[in-house]
Write a structure and sequence with these properties.
Blueprint (H helix, E strand, L loop, with lengths): L1 H6 L8 E2 L5 H11 L11 E7 H18 L4 H14 L2 E8 L8 H21 L11 H11 L6 E9 L1 E2 L18
Antiparallel strand pairs: 1-5, 2-3, 3-4
Helix pairs in contact: 2-5, 3-4, 3-6
The structure holds flavin mononucleotide.
The site of flavin mononucleotide has 7 residues, from loops.
């Protein structure tokens, strides 16, 4: 376990190949997510797994929204998302649900939701799958929420996570913990 945690990495789209978890593996992944620290048990996180036609249609929509917003970068956008469709066949959308609460602040709900994403990332890595984090800006968030039937108010899309099997190992040099830990 400690080795998995120490070696967790993201796998960029260029080194992923299409393959996604089996139903049993998904069960285990969501059980890992369910153990994320959740102050007040408010369940501030949600995940949507996109596969097959919905996966492809969502990416086609993203290409359209991004090209409309950044017309000068249209070629790059098309190239990037087409590569994503070639190298993966599944993408997970994670979002936070934050409700005003007298005891549990919005910030605490956001932190809880990010903890769930971390559990998700590590569970995927430990089963031999790779992903990386794609964030999207505010107005594309709204379009994507509408397209996927996500409540528009009180939600934020935390990230898009293309899932695949890494075609090669990836090791990363990590910061020395002396840089971020003090014992007093
Ligand atoms: C909140 C957050 C948002 C990110 N958004 C993007 C993104 O939009 N596009 C991208 O290529 N990488 C993005 N990344 C970075 C990668 O997914 C990856 O985490 C980063 O390259 C660090 O690599 P590592 O996870 O192997 O340490 C984001 C990372 C974080 C933590």
């Amino acid at each position: 376990m400690i080795e998995i945690l120490q070696n967790r990495v993201s796998y960029p789209i260029s080194i992923l190949s299409p393959n996604s978890p089996t139903n049993d593996e998904w069960d285990n992944i969501w059980k890992c997510v369910a153990s994320a620290p959740d102050y007040g048990a408010l369940l501030p996180y949600r995940f949507i797994v996109l596969k097959c036609d919905i996966f492809k249609n969502t990416i086609k929509q993203l290409i359209k929204w991004l090209s409309d917003k950044y017309p000068d970068s249209q070629d790059k956008i098309i190239k990037y998302w087409n590569q994503l469709m070639e190298n993966t066949d599944c993408m997970v959308i994670s979002y936070t649900v934050k409700k005003p609460n007298k005891i549990y602040s919005i910030k605490d709900q956001e932190y809880g939701a990010i903890s769930a994403v971390t559990q998700f990332y590590i569970a995927l890595n430990s089963l031999g799958y790779g992903t990386y984090w794609i964030s999207i800006d505010d107005n594309i968030q709204q379009s994507l929420k509408q397209c996927l039937g996500i409540e528009l108010e009180n939600t934020t899309i935390t990230g898009l996570f293309p899932i695949g099997t890494p075609i090669k190992e990836r090791k990363k040099k990590r910061p020395n913990y002396n840089k971020f830990v003090q014992y007093k």
